[in-house]
Amino acid sequence: MIPYNAMETAVWCGFAGLGFGVLFNVPPRSLLVIWLLAALGGFTKNILTLAGTDLILASLAGATLIGVLSIFAAHQKHAPPLVFSIPALIPMVPGVFGFRTMLGLIKLSSSVSQEGYSLVLFQCINNGIKTALITLSLAVGASIPMLLTRKTSAKDLKFSLRRK
Amino acid sequence: MDSEIGELEEIGQLLLDVGSKLMVSGASTDRVRVTVDRMADALGCDVELFITHRALSMTIKNASGLSSSSILRTPPHAVNYGLVSGISIISWRMVEEKWSVEKIKAELAQLESKPRYPRLLVLSLVALAGASFCRIFGGDGMEMANTFFATFFGLLVLQEARKSRFNPYLCVLFASISASLVSGIGYKLGLSDTMEHAFAASVLFLIPGIPLINALTDMIDGNVLNGWVRGVHAFLTIFMVAVGLLFAMLVYRI
Fold this sequence. Notes:
heterodimer; A: 164 residues; mainly alpha; 7 helices; 80% helix; B: 254 residues; 2 domains; three-stranded antiparallel β-sheet; 3 strands; elongated
């Protein structure tokens, strides 16, 4: 049974991706695909975290799904894969962790008591590493089809798949 | 001989122009290099490119061994995936249909004159994206409405500040302050019990997603220097967002 919560969040992930697609001025023909990719990626990540997977691995899985699907979308809609994958990845960008890291850094300049300082330092480093690793997993996931097939363009990928 | 050099220089300028447009529109360094290489190949030339965030440097050679070098500064960075997509299509069609330099220039000019999305639509959809983030974090309907107006207003301020040519990081600071101040209004008026979700979600439209992802993409591709430049740019932007939020926190005393 799929939790209702995860499905609802997926729908909102779709709208978040769509908004950023428009902000990045993507071609209108790609908007529907972006909504779908963002929702599917968000759904995968949420289901995996609900099942107890680590947040970083779950992000990698969601981003990989988006990366692979964006290749198909690129052939269908005649636009580079990044036009679909990056707006769809944006809902997964660890904005809150990045934000907490920044607040932590600012707090580190003001805390005085030693216990308070260690706690802030600990949280700040923890959030910072999470931000970096999740972003890395998003970038790797989105470019996995390219990295594994050792091609420089999605167009070649289509031809090589056909020949096989 | 002179005409041949002139022609080579013209092609060089065109390719540099394409490269710098891709760079500021949000393409990764590898994508810029691959696209310019492909276009040069189709025009019967060979290029060596040195790509940085603020300028592109190129040496172009033709079949008879003549070469020309030039540098072009990039215009201000502004993400535009319509341009990235359009240039990609041009680069493939010119290979297949053997376009002349004039034809390529005409197609590029046409691509740039294409209208963007209407401003009101962009504002509303980005505001909807902000409200979606609020929901994803666990906010209720009232907080979502709060975030919607906060993001709408923040993006409006960002666009106006950019139009007035403020420093890019200052633009982000202005937008962050306005968005977070608006997001707290509902809480102050007693319309919602908590403002935490609305507060965090209202500035998320400012998070530099493309520079962050491109930073890592560049590093994975081996363009480590460009990756760091993008990463530092993203870090500074996030810093400005945090400062804006802190300001609003001081105002609302939380």
